[in-house]
Amino acid sequence: MRLLPSLLGRKALTWLSVGVVGSISLAAVELAVALFLQLFLKSLDILQADIKTIGFLERLHLTPMSFGIFLTVAAFLRATAQYLSWQSTYVAQESITARLRRIAVFDMLLRKGKRAVSAAEVSSRVGEYFIKASQASFSGANSFSYLIQASCLFLILLAAAWKEALCSLVGLVVIGVVTKVLGRRANQIASRVPEELSALTEGIVRIARNQFLIRTLRTEPDEHRRLVGNVDAYAGHAVRATHLGNLVSVTPPFVGVLLILGIVLVGRAVFHTPGLVLLSFLYLFMRFVQSLSGSVQHFSIANQYSPQLFSCLDFLAGFTPDEIDQATRAALPPVDRTASFATNVAPPEILLSTVGYRYPGSRDEVFSGISLTIPSGTQFAIVGPSGVGKSTLLSLVLGLAEPTAGAVTLDGDGPASYFARTDVRVGYVGAEAFLIEGTLRENLTYGLAGEVADDLIWAALAEAKLDVAVRAMDRGLDHPLEEDGSGLSAGQKQRLCLARALLNRPQVLILDEASANLDEATELEIASSLRALRGRCTTILVSHRAGILTYADETVRLGDG
Predict the structure, then answer these.
(1) Which residue pairs from 169-176 have beta carbons closer than 8 angstroms and sit at least 24 positions apart in sequence?
(2) Structure-model confidence comparison of residues 87 and 354, the more confident one
(3) Which runs of E-coded beta strand occur in 193-234?
(4) Is 104:323 a contact under the CB 8 Å cutoff?
(5) pTM (2 decimals)?
(6) Domains of the chain with CATH codes
(7) Angstrom distance (rounded) from CA 482 to CA 463
(8) pLDDT tens by residue, 279-303
């Protein structure tokens, strides 16, 4: 419960409060209609004049015209209250979805000291969990609004005809028992839906990254069978959960009709209730059953999507109130890179002093006791087999994680402080090329401030050994690219990213498996270009391959004890 305010936010809470007010107003309008219906029937002599109604109504005399005006006003008030009730919960739902997505975007891009967030994790949250969590909140709020209407109407029913009201209550208890049983089963099945979606999403991401391997090994039928199983299981659980939810939704109206018939028979034959009172009771009871049905229907939907809601609450539990406040503020202004691009800060000296790291909750250290000095403007290589902590050590140097032992400094500052400086520039090339939809020029100047002269662009392309290929293109630097870089080879994409990093004139250049898609000859050419950068930037190399490490000045080899 303590996390609900974080989930809802001020805007959603405000609109949900408006919905509650609208629900109470609807109940008041229904009562007014029932009372004035009595008076109108008496004024038309349809009911005997000696039948008593509420005191103040006895002193009123309605004409067909005045009653028509009253019905028009009542219809307008009812429509207004209903609009407020429905619109408020819808706005609240969209507000909750947007709030959760803002937090996810903050988690992925701006949260300090956070682990990398996988694409599958973000996709499943944004595409499934957040939407259904907001639907659960939406339906829960609607269920509460309808329940308020039903409660107000039931109190009125007790005042009008308590015996009939208590009889109806017995029938409603039966409805409640049936609804609870069906709802519990629906919830059990619904809990499997997000599990199957996660398995499907992770499988698709894994296959997308390894299509060449899968085709080479001819395991497409195996992977297809596995994914189809996830698809069918997801659909099957979703259909069964919806089937039970719909049963829960249609049960109250059906039993409500039976109750109405029973109340009419018992009221006339056993309790001898006056016809006028019974008429008003039946009108209000039908509205009561309608409100109760709406409450049960929305509760069923909220129950069906409760696994996603609880998952989102667990997600929010990992954030501090300050982080949630930062995540839900207005978007940050663009970064002003003009000053940093104009400065000429010397490349840093990197010092590692008995550095060690242990993953949270683990007793074993990934590595320990690493001490070395990387002089300004030299090349520093991190090598070793997969899984020994190369990326972890790189994260410590970049300030993305804190060492559990020892310290890392750059020119005497901690990594986080050093890289937060506006006059420090960093170049990065990873194993997978990051490109945007646009021209080659737009890709090369991505993240740079202002206009960059063409001669600087061509110089960077030459250092990355890509200038000849670009000059051969019909439109040169204005050659259009898709986001996936179609039309360029894997090696050309990688060299394009390297040229962009060099164009930034960085003090720190990071190459994380950057030669993974290069042939040996091109890799040696790039290594030669990197040698020419000595003194201009401090270069950090992470690689399995020896070619790009040819001119490394310092090497940390992990995995050798």
Answers:
(1) 171/255, 171/258, 171/259, 171/262, 172/259, 172/292, 174/255, 175/251, 175/252, 175/255, 175/256, 175/296
(2) 354
(3) none
(4) no
(5) 0.56
(6) 4-327 (1.20.1560.10), 342-557 (3.40.50.300)
(7) 24
(8) 667 777 777 777 777 787 788 788 8
